[in-house]
Amino acid sequence: MTEPMLSVERAQERVLEAFRPLESERVAPLEALGRVLAEDVHAGEDIPPHDNSSMDGYAVRSADTAGAGHQAPVRLRVVDELPAGYVTGTEVAPGTAVRIMTGAPLPPGADAVVRVEDTRAEGEWVEIFVAAPVGQYVRPAGEDVRQGELVLPKGTLVRPQEVGMLATLGRKEVPVTRRPRVAILATGDELVEIDAPLAPGKIRDANSYSNAAQVVQCGGEPILLGIARDRVDELTDRIRAGLTGVDLFLTSGGVSVGDFDLVKQVLASEGRIHFWRVCMKPGKPLAFGWIGPSAGSGQRPSTGSGRVPLLGLPGNPVSVMVSFEMFARPAMLKMLGMTRWQRPTVEATLMDEVRHKDERRHYLRVRLEERSGGYRAYLTGGQGSGILSSMVKANGLAIIPEDWDHVPAGARVRALVLDARW
């Protein structure tokens, strides 16, 4: 009896149950970009650390400027000049002012700044044409963050702005979840390396490279194991050699009904692998489980056990990439410590008709274009699982529900946005 197909959501749940966030490591702020903080980050001091000027102008006592106007300017004696990066011991006494630059600490006695556009310098004097209320153009100490404040909580995704804040806080190193290391193995006698001439019946190995690029895009480290031929000894050796120090093992090819049974046989003999049929197109066949020493015990392996979760992806290049999107990408983001791993989606009008559709959920390669009335989705060509050029032209995947048997042009659909990183 044929097993019922798993829904995409149920297959994702089963895969994600096997993964946990990885341990942390300390890295420089720039190396933390795109990664997740493993600890809370608090401010060790006020930022900014002192009251400072937000304008080029004159630091004054507010009371000295009362009633100032263009018809009746206030004249103050300039007793010092203060550029950014320096301090002064000169006090702003009644009737005086200090020439100040943007970012310079407010001198003692001053409680406001008059911008230079509202003044006129005359030797050692300055005429003030506006009244300056207390605090005008003054950035108070701690305006950005206060000493002891939780600035970046654990679980924060580090973007360029977080890198800047870490630098502001003086954090030379920061704890982040380490990058997942992903072994990638292509299988099949038909495959040759990318620089090899194409003999009859051969194709170049695109899957290893597209998967490796997807791993990098997700924030992981790919480990390319090359191509394993359809021989028990070679496939077994490649799998065993690739287990050391990796967090996920990806294979492509050999998991479909009708594929050479040798791949399934070796995977099953080297671990505890389940072969599923997932209700999606492209990408129905999927293998998942554990591989390595004692992987057949049925227990979830502990860290350092030598057992590694394995995802066996289909063989056709589009199926491989879409299956990675649905299953490997969420697993990697979970290992990175993220709590959200779904691609953003938009609602779009599908501009092309799809006349026939089976009972699976279809992911159609589309070019999304934003117009004044919303998004439009255009098919990028033939939707066969071997047409990699349709992925090259696509920036989205239109999601066609299981219960639709066709899609008329003009139908409203949801679409995954592929060009968005997270």
Quick structural gist:
The chain has seven helices and 26 strands. It is of the alpha/beta class. The strands form seven sheets. Strands 7-4-6-5-9-8 form a six-stranded mixed sheet, with no helix packed on it.
What structural keywords apply?
Molybdopterin biosynthesis moea protein, domain 2, six-stranded mixed beta sheet, Molybdenum Cofactor Biosythetic Enzyme, Chain A, alpha/beta, 422 residues
Descriptive overview:
It is a single chain. By secondary structure, the chain is α/β, with parallel strands linked by helices. It has four domains: 8-23 and 178-335, MoaB/Mog-like domain (Molybdenum Cofactor Biosythetic Enzyme, Chain A, 3-Layer(aba) Sandwich); 25-45 and 151-177, Molybdopterin biosynthesis moea protein, domain 2 (Alpha-Beta Complex); 52-139, Molybdopterin biosynthesis moeA protein, domain 3, CATH 2.170.190; 345-417, MoeA, C-terminal, domain IV (Beta-clip), CATH 2.40.340. It is 17% helix and 30% strand. The chain contains seven helices and 26 strands. It has helices at 8-16, 160-168, 207-217, 232-241, 261-270, 317-335, 389-392, and strands at 24-27, 41-42, 52-53, 57-60, 74-82, 96-100, 112-115, 119-122, 125-128, 138-139, 150-152, 174-177, 181-187, 191-192, 203-204, 221-228, 248-252, 271-277, 280-281, 285-291, 308-313, 345-350, 361-371, 374-379, 396-400, 412-417. The protein has a six-stranded mixed sheet, with no helix packed on it. Strand 8 (119-122) and strand 9 (125-128) form a beta hairpin. The longest helix has 19 residues, at 317-335. The radius of gyration is 31 Å and the shape is elongated. The two termini are 40 Å apart.
